Amino acid sequence: MAVHIGTSGWSYDHWNGVLYEPGLAKTKRLWRYTSEFDTVELNTSFYHWPRATAFARWREELPEGFLMTVKAPRGLTHPRRLRNPEQWIERIADSWPELGDRRAALLVQLHPALQRDDERLDHFLRLLPPGTAVAMELRHPSWDAPEVYDLLERYGAAYVVMSGAGMPCVLRATAKLVYVRFHGPDDAPLYAGSYSPDDLQWWARRIDEWRRQGRSVLAYFNNDGGGNAVRNARDLRALLV
Question: Whole-model pTM above 0.90?
């Protein structure tokens, strides 16, 4: 089954000399990124949801076979915390399909203080357009419950397996898609540390297990500090060849 490994975001000045050649224009960064990786997690959509024309442009610019995950807007996940999601779901449904076959998944990262609420989660998933590949990042530990995983399985929603200091790391697959986010092994600061070779070997074995179960895997490194996300993504991908 397919395994796609990339990073969370791509346009970082501190990746100069790691992924980007000195003097490379910012407008060329996505082109350079896609020359090495086959998937990316769009972060800017969390802060400003793109227009349909932006998704259509990416569909034309991204190479064939490249997959883009799009992070759901924080207006849906943080201030509202999934309450009354209809307006945001309509907005997503009106524009995200323009990405066409370059779509990977819709990442829904809930506020870390949002505790388990099965009814709210059920309502949100029920309203999503049929066929939406959605991955739920449930950061509060209270979500770790069999009933929650059953709910995700019922809707074919992927549980986001999280790796990060202070985050619950539950190796649970709830859909044909397994979604993994690597936030960094350290908490000083989070999103900056680098995974050791032993760490990456361990994760490579987990990904192989999911693949043997007939599942596809999307894995993104969010530890962008110092370019560690790029290095770790390269190394993990090499272990899975």
Answer: yes
Q: Given this model, what pLDDT does residue 19 score?
A: 97
C-alpha Rg value of the chain to the nearest Å: 17
Range of the domain at 106: 3-239
- 182 within 8 A of 162, measured Cβ to Cβ: no
Give the number of domains in the chain: 1
The Cα 42–Cα 63 span in angstroms is 16
Question: Hey, is 65 helix, strand or coil?
Answer: coil
Burial degree of 18 (CB within 10 A; 0-12, 13-18, 19+): middle
> Could you tell me if 232 and 221 are in contact, meaning their C-beta atoms sit under 8 angstroms apart?
yes
Q: What is the CATH number of the domain that holds 69?
A: 3.20.20.410
Average pLDDT (68-90) is 95
* CA pair distance 160, 166, nearest whole angstrom: 15
**Contact status, residue 89 vs residue 127, Cβ threshold 8 Å:** yes
Cα–Cα distance for residue pair 116/81, rounded to 1 Å:
11
Long-range pairs of 163-166 with CB within 8 A, sequence gap ≥ 24:
163/203, 164/190, 164/222, 165/190, 165/193, 166/190
The 10s digit of each residue's pLDDT in 161-217 is: 999 988 899 999 999 999 999 999 988 788 889 999 999 999 999 999 999 999 999
Burial class (CB in 10 A: 0-12, 13-18, 19+), 52: middle
**Tokens at 121, concatenated:** 């989660």
